[in-house]
């Protein structure tokens, strides 16, 4: 059977695993209840910071996906999302120790037929260059439109 299935993976979110637990329903619709009271020993000891990266499969095609993270100290770590677990889930949470500067899926560029390559990378610091580029283009377009409109008066 031939289909026109699409291939699209995205980094959905990057957040600290040390965020306070909330009461309510999670993304899968399961009820979440935080612990009643933390242990006195655990409250004194400072836990190691962890970061959770959620990768989402938006298309129908299932392939092995590699996630690469960069830390502030320059070290890199890779994790793999196997196709056998993708049949049950549309997303997967990867937990890493420490702070993450950048997360990227398909770092080797194996799957260039991904529908949207712009959602394959998340960085900690926002990059203002794209906004500046499009602002300059918009102002240039607006200037040309006003000059053209002024010729008719």
With strands numbered from the N-terminus, the spatial order across the biggest sheet is: 6-5-8-9
> H/E series, N to C?
EEEHEEEHEEEH
First-last Cα distance:
62 Å
Could you give a short account of the major beta sheet? 4 strands, antiparallel
Query: Counting H and I runs of at least 4 residues, what is the number of helices?
Result: 3
**Structural class of the secondary elements?**
alpha+beta
Describe the global form: extended
Average residue-wise pLDDT: 83
Q: Beta fraction of the residues? A: 25-35%
Q: If you compute it from the alpha carbons, what radius of gyration comes out, rounded to the nearest whole angstrom? A: 22 Å
Topology:
Elements: E1 9-16, E2 24-25, E3 31-32, H1 40-44, E4 50-57, E5 65-71, E6 76-81, H2 83-86, E7 91-97, E8 100-105, E9 121-123, H3 129-150
Antiparallel strand pairs: 1-4, 2-3, 4-7, 5-6, 5-8, 8-9
What is the compact description of this entry?
With 153 residues, the chain is an alpha+beta fold. The chain has 3 helices and 9 strands.
């Amino acid at each position: 059977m031939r289909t026109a299935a699409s291939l699209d993976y995205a980094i959905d979110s990057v957040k600290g695993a040390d965020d306070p637990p909330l009461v309510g329903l999670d993304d899968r619709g399961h009820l979440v209840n935080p612990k009643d009271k933390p242990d006195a020993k655990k409250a004194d000891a400072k836990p190691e910071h962890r970061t959770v990266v959620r990768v989402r499969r938006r298309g129908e095609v299932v392939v092995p996906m590699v996630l690469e993270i960069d830390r502030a100290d320059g070290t890199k770590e890779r994790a793999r999302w196997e196709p056998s677990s993708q049949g049950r889930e549309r997303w997967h949470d990867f937990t890493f120790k420490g702070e993450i500067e950048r997360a990227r899926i398909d770092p080797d560029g194996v799957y260039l037929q991904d529908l949207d390559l712009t959602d394959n990378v998340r960085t900690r610091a926002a990059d203002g260059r794209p906004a500046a580029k499009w602002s300059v283009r918009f102002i240039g377009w607006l200037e040309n439109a006003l000059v053209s409109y002024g010729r008719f008066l």
